[in-house]
Amino acid sequence: MNARHDSPSSPGSLLQHIWGYPAFRGRQREVIDHVLGGHDALVLMPTGGGKSLCFQIPALLREGLGVVVSPLIALMQDQVAALRELGIRAAFLNSTLDAQTAREVQQQARRGELDLLYMAPERLLSESGLSLLDGCRIALFAIDEAHCVSQWGHDFRPEYGQLAMLRERWPQVPRVALTATADVPTRHEIVQRLLRDGTEFVSSFDRPNIRYRVVEKRDGRAQLLQFIRGEHVGDCGVVYCLSRNTVEEVAQMLAGHGIAALPYHAGLPAAQRAAHLRRFLDEDGVVMVATIAFGMGIDKPDVRFVAHLDMPRSIEGYFQETGRAGRDGLPAQAWMAYGLSDVVQQRRLIELSEADDAYKRLSTSKLDAMLALAEAADCRRVRLLAYFDETSTSCGNCDNCLNPPELVDATESAQKLLSCIYRCRQTSGTSFAATHIIDVLRGKRSEKVERFSHQVLSTFGIGADLSEQDWRQLLRQLAAQHLLEVDAAHFNVLRLTDASREVLRGARRIHLKRQEPGAERKRRPAPATGTGTVGQALSAEDFALFEALRAWRSGVAKEHGVPAYVVFPDTALQAIALARPRSLEQLRGISGVGDKKRDSYGAALLALIAQASAHS
Ligand code: ADP
Ligand code: ZN
After folding, report:
1. Residue ID of nearest Cα to ligand 1 atom 20
2. Whose CA is nearest to atom 2 of ligand 1?
3. Residue 49 CA, closest ligand 1 atom number
4. pLDDT tens-digit readout, 390-440
5. In order of start, what are the domains of the chain with their CATH numbers?
6. What angle is formed at CA 285 by the lines to CA 280 and CA 286, rounded to 5 degrees?
7. What is the pLDDT of residues 216-246, one digit of tens each?
8. Which ligand is located closest to the Cα atom of residue 214?
9. CA–centroid distance, residue 71 to ligand 1 (Å)
10. Which pTM was predicted?
11. 140 by DSSP, 3-state: which?
């Protein structure tokens, strides 16, 4: 079916009839009009912002084939499946296709039977790719993940540089470059290499539906389990760990507690990795425990949480990884357990790396910015956005906004801590690690204290007023700011630094955070059913219907060989469960139910709704 021909041709009516969405988001409409006018555009939107519509709608409305260049071969199949579910004539060409299928796709393109064709860059640039396009009328080129053109970026693809030729070969065809990577030099590089007039459409990078939370790491794994069991039962999520070993152990631990968790890292056999990815994409409620090898281009819209058991090494990394949560706009959480070990581990990794000094300095300053975010007592979103040059005000949806910590001046305690480190070293000629220093401060006569006779020191017992936890918090804060050093090469012993003197002199104030435990949880409305994110937003009856819809959806998805979200995203099922439409006409008003889906699935949906309503 050609979607173009049976709907009035305006962007708004396509949005409504094909996608079933009532309104454009952010700058979508502006971009669409600009491209429809035959102009080039650079589109910068955060993950989940809705970049795809910015080229899909103009491709449907302009004469000819929309060519989409993407480096993410693994995603093309699902993207095309999603478009076909909407009744759009889409196909892809990449190395995963057999020769016969590829030939068929090429013929369809030549005959003008396709609206959108997804191609890997190397395929497009090949002799056969170019001659295929020479034989087609082209509506536009969309260049997805356009930051791959940047030689300085971490996703650099040499073929992307060669895409500059599109401009010479098809000067009349508009190009849309899209990315979620924010920095200004990369933007310039994209425009310079790929576009002509290159109007930039920059959206805010804020992801308001993501709640940012950082908890003090005590027993990270136990805390993670409690977090998932308490707030994300049955939800899809990603857990990031630094090492492959941890990934395996944590996946096993979660699975042992009945959570559908799977490991993912570069050390697993390719077939197993692919199978785990498939299950994550296709099934509901899978938790992927992974190293950062997992991520680029994870398109799943209903990831309800991203948890970090180890801190990322930069704010860019943190933003990118947490950004994989909540693409569908429903509430999602970015949760991180953070402790002194993160400071020590990440500093150590920089030290041990073989990079040159300039790179190490850059890495250190990026790490310091990340540490400041983790230590922050004020709005985390304000800090996050400020890092990307965006100013904002307190968000009301991060841990510090929801449960503002009380700050207690702890400068004197910090001085005691530093003096104690100094005294112990001076008396015994050797340095000590945190546990011992805290024992001395709190006046605990441990075996080691007696062995070194530290009970006679003037600093013995001067810190009994603070708990061990407080001392650790203080220590971590000082380490994060280079006010003391943890020597990871020597049993994590503590040493003073040049900057320690600033604290000892009283030139630098230090604060302890006091947060009422659990206060943030108490503020939320009591969940209707005690289950995951959607359950918390629905009444028990509506949630039962939602579950029935989900079960039906997974059957359809299996039958069609597509991920569940391709049939309907959670947002649509939730809206259906709430509105309980009784007719096809009423179904039309549900966001995410376009004409084709109503034709295909409307009857089944109405039957499920009738059944549920009869029971309740
Ligand atoms: P991006 O590529 O920017 O990460 P997508 O294009 O995949 O984002 O869109 C993210 C989600 O938002 C998709 O599920 C998409 O269907 C949905 N979406 C996009 N535009 C709208 C809109 N105007 N109204 C409602 N949902 C939208
Ligand atoms: Zn906030």
Report:
1. 50
2. 51
3. 3
4. 899 999 999 999 999 999 999 999 999 999 999 999 999 999 999 999 999
5. 3-202 (3.40.50.300), 210-404 (3.40.50.300), 408-514 (1.10.10.10), 538-614 (1.10.150.80)
6. 35
7. 999 999 999 999 999 999 999 999 999 999 9
8. 2
9. 20
10. 0.86
11. strand
